[in-house]
Request: fold
Amino acid sequence: MAKTSALSTDQDGHSVTVNQRQYALPKTPTVVVCVDGFDPAYLTHGIENGILPAMKAIKEGGYLGYAKCSMPSTTNTNNTSIVTGVPPAIHGINGNYYLDSETGEEIMVTDAKRLRCGTILGAVSGAGVSTAVVTAKDKLLKVLAYNMKGVAFSAQNANDAKLDIDGFHTAEALVGRSQPDQYSADLSIFVFDAGVRLFELKRPMLMYLSTSDYVQHKYAPGAPESNAFLKAVDERIGKLIKLGATVAITADHGMNDKCGPDGEANVIYVQDEISARFGEGSVRVICPIADPFVKHHGALGSFVRVHLQKPGDVGAMMEFVRGLPGIELVLDKAEVCKQFDLPLDREGDFAVFSDRNTVVGARREDHNLSELAGERLRSHGGLGEETVPFLVSRPLNDVYLRKTKNEVQHNYDIFDFALNGVE
Ligand code: ZN
Ligand code: ZN
Reply:
């Protein structure tokens, strides 16, 4: 597969073209950060309450705005969008999970097999620029570091990451503490600490840091736990800026509370509902948000794909699902691809979006909510989590400032802004 065909170093030697967009090679060290699940509500609360001084300084001296993420608003989809600079229609990764139409198996995306194009990181590193990637979750690493030369490891496997950086041979040694628990706030803080250490020692010209949304799934904006987490994130961003980095920050998706006033999750089991009306075995419902890293959300989010298992009346099914309370939008394959830039050959027969306070699942038995243990369900996947922060630590040039006024930004524009858009 010719995934690299869209990559080239331009003849001027100062830029690369990736997926038909030109990126200037960094003249100063540039760090792009994806804070997983960084809903705008955390940013606003944090700036107003003195928790995010570095981001407040960016608001005052650089650029702070908002962007749209790719649908479904899930981690793999959007991290891939960010590092390729294009939507899923082009890069091909349209969820964390998908249904293999040949085997009927549900498969988690853990490698770059479904990736259909090259990445900005790969192209920049290929042009001889020192490049690094640190991610919380190992499952993302193969996509993020696809065809990239340079340092690349995950906090999850910090112990195994074979490095050779000034005498440090593992990421644990580099950061100076042991590999964090997979289900912890520290998994993300470790990513930043590794990024700061790498920057101090090697000063890569381009670095991408990507965290986990473990904290945001558990704690709302303003909770002591999320305040402490974001304060730690902000401190490290402040450090990178102080060390001379241009830092650009966005998120893969937002995060919302999905419960009623009584604290019970608002859940619609779409496969159960369709089976009850149209017959058992008529459809398979796939939840592309399913993520083993945040086990307590029970694989429930605000977007599912419905795959017909035998010939049926798609229109009637869609009409039925539209009538369920808490459903925001139901679109057939062609329409969801058109409206949300998704790959036609990888969609279900129709897609279901629930509203910002409701989640959709497959069958009741597929989802284990016992891990919530009395906590409120917070999740993402739908349109309620489409808006994400978009920050650049240095002032934008006139061309890019104009873009912020005349065009809608996507989180996958963040490398463009960081590399082409600063003064
Ligand atoms: Zn995420
Ligand atoms: Zn999540």
In short: The mean pLDDT is 94.
